[in-house]
Write a structure and sequence with these properties.
about 170 residues; two-stranded antiparallel ribbon; 2 strands; about 65% helix
Length: about 170
């Protein structure tokens, strides 16, 4: 049985490319938050944060590949090499928030990060013509954006009501 594995250098390169892209997307949005005041700054900042986090969560939706993974010719699949579902791809990226733990796990086990272990996925070299189809990515992205926005807005509103630091940041 031939087991395909992505090497650690490829994985780190793909993460690097994805982070650079996220920074490129983030800078103009963060600049508008810092230099422009809107009538409802809390709503606008929550929306920007939601868009950025949704980009992070949804980055692997097209055939199990983010832009960084496409550049490095990598792909996320289930451990049995079948295509991972959109829900699995999104949920494994939720754990990116605990990146220090993810980084330690990758150093210990370069083949699979914590999100891979938890959701039974792995990263493999991309097959040349994998036949992966783009399934409702825009619909999925929009649904994720709405859910993340509602969650973030609710959490920030609650924090705003009880925290002077949050009040200072959002006024």
């Amino acid at each position: 049985m031939n087991i395909e594995k992505a090497n650690s250098l490829q994985r780190f390169k793909s993460i690097f490319f994805d982070l650079i892209l996220l920074i490129i997307i983030s800078v103009p949005l963060v600049v508008t938050i810092l230099f422009f005041r809107f009538d409802d700054n809390l709503l606008y900042q929550t929306f920007i944060l939601s868009v950025l986090y949704t980009c992070l969560l949804s980055k692997d939706l097209i055939g199990g590949q983010s832009i960084g993974k496409r550049i490095c010719k990598l792909q996320i699949v289930n451990v049995d090499n079948s295509s991972a579902s959109s829900l699995k791809l999104i949920l494994r990226n939720v754990l990116f928030l605990i990146w220090p733990i993810e980084f330690i796990i990758i150093l210990i086990n370069p083949e699979r990060r914590f999100g891979d272990l938890l959701f039974n996925t792995k990263v493999i070299p991309c097959k040349k013509n994998s036949g992966v189809k783009q399934k409702n990515i825009y619909y999925t992205f929009l649904v994720v954006l709405i859910i993340v926005f509602i969650l973030f807005y609710f959490v920030i509103k609650v924090l705003y009501a009880y925290s002077n630091l949050i009040k200072l940041l959002y006024t």
